[in-house]
Amino acid sequence: MDTQNAYHPIGIFDSGFGGLTVLKEIRQQLPGYDYLYLGDNARAPYGSRSFETVYEYTLECVTHLFNMGCELIVLACNTASAKALRTIQQKDLAKFGPHKRVLGVIRPTTEIIGHYSKSGHVGVLGTPGTINSGSYLVEIEKFFPDLHVYQEACPMWVPLIENNEYQNEGADFFIKKHVQQLMQQQEKIDAIILGCTHYPLIINQIKKYLPEQVHLLSQGSIVAKSLTDYLLRHPDLEKKCSKHGRIEFYTTDQTSAFDKAATLFYGQNINSKHLAL
């Protein structure tokens, strides 16, 4: 197959549906590329699983994406980015080839969070797995060592969103609870990272329980801009990414269930294919 017509999509991986909010933003900023989305719904959620299990599952899915033609993969999952990305980059990437790359969603947000805070106090809302990993604390320390960072784990938010129960009063109780618990740690917090790709679906409800001056950073547009910059800085890799405007969706679970739920996150109807691991 000649290089011009070769199919080398950009891989987007998530444990379930949240990465679709990232993919949506990436496609808006980079519409000409080919994309291959893989949701490991059969084994979701990743948030409560151990580092070893998340690494094992993520590596297996990354391997499939590379075997399907991807040269570049974005882990559009905070848990996978927190618990598996570094090990894959340092231990496994070389065996796939010298030019393969895997990126995450945590670093792009932590690189800019300090620019949104005047008080020097910022917050992170995420799943228990992401919060307990300490990844946001480590990454923010690298870029903004003077920032004070406060975290809040929100175990109920993802199940409420994935079951399409996030717009009722019961969901509001849990959203208000965790937002208030974060702000009670430090009332001077003036910038908050939404450290889960599901959370854009409830951003307006989160805003209801925050002072107006608090900045909420949603990852989709930030990751999309970061990926755009990355491709500009790595022209050899960029040239390998095919540009036919194609997009394919895969799930490790039942396709009909995936397609129905995925529409909430992606905003368009989806026809997925099943991938057996």
List the helices and strands and how they pair.
Layout: E1 10-14, H1 19-29, E2 35-39, H2 51-67, E3 72-75, H3 78-83, H4 85-96, E4 101-103, H5 106-110, E5 121-126, H6 128-133, H7 135-143, E6 148-153, H8 157-162, H9 169-185, E7 191-195, H10 203-208, E8 215-217, H11 219-233, H12 235-240, E9 247-251, H13 255-266, E10 273-274
Parallel strand pairs: 1-2, 1-3, 2-9, 3-4, 5-6, 5-7, 7-8, 9-10
Helix pairs in contact: 1-11, 2-4
Account of the 3D structure:
This protein has 277 residues and is of the alpha/beta class. The protein is built from 13 helices and ten strands. Strand 7, helix 10 and strand 8 form a beta-alpha-beta unit. Helix 1 packs across helix 11. It is globular, with a radius of gyration of 18 Å. The chain starts with 9 loop residues before the first strand and ends with a strand. The model has no long low-confidence stretch (mean pLDDT 95).
As an assembly, this protein is: single chain
- Sketch the topology as an H/E string, one letter per element: EHEHEHHEHEHHEHHEHEHHEHE
Structural class: alpha/beta
Bin the helical content: 40-55%
* Main sheet properties: 6 strands, parallel
Number of β-strand runs: 10
Mean pLDDT across the residues is 95
Strand order of the largest sheet: 4-3-1-2-9-10
**What is the count of DSSP helices, taking H or I runs of 4+ residues?**
13
